[in-house]
């Protein structure tokens, strides 16, 4: 087994749910940076922004979202939370896509998925 195959076998799948906005305290952005670090280490990572966490995806110049995208993280924004905050798809980063809770439920029930809610 070569090194790349060994790393792939050791890779985990993470579904990380962020419910806090960037202003929620000094560690609010750290969760998203941790997600990027997991992806950069070779793990499959998906981030689901919900509640005030959707505000992290507003605009085109959000460092955390840019790093997640560069690391290959799939970034999902809860469509209900976005609608409640009057955020249409045109106000969100081009690196994210709107998704419903059904997508989150399906992801969390996949074999081997490690879910973390912040």
Mind telling me which CATH architecture this is? 3-Layer(aba) Sandwich
Order of helices and strands: HEHEHEHEHE
Strand-pairing-aware structural class: alpha/beta
Largest sheet: 5 strands, parallel
Rg over CA atoms: 14 Å
- Care to count the β-strands? 5
Q: Which strand order does the major sheet show?
A: 4-3-2-1-5
Q: What is the strand content?
A: 15-25%
Overall helicity: 25-40%
Task: Describe the protein.
This is DsrE/DsrF-like family protein. InterPro entries: DsrEFH-like (IPR027396), Sulphur_relay_DsrE/F-like (IPR003787). By secondary structure, this protein is of the alpha/beta class. The protein has a single domain (15-24, 43-117), classed as DsrEFH-like (Hypothetical Protein Ychn, Chain: A). 35% of the residues lie in helices and 22% in strands. The longest helix is centred in the N-terminal third of the chain and has 11 residues, at 30-40. It has helices spanning 3-10, 30-40, 63-70, 79-84, 101-108; strands spanning 13-18, 44-49, 74-78, 96-99, 113-117. Helix 4 links the parallel strand 3 and strand 4.
Which helices and strands, and how do they pair?
Elements lengths: L2 H8 L2 E6 L11 H11 L3 E6 L13 H8 L3 E5 H6 L11 E4 L1 H8 L4 E5 L1
Parallel strand pairs: 1-2, 1-5, 2-3, 3-4
Helix pairs in contact: 2-3
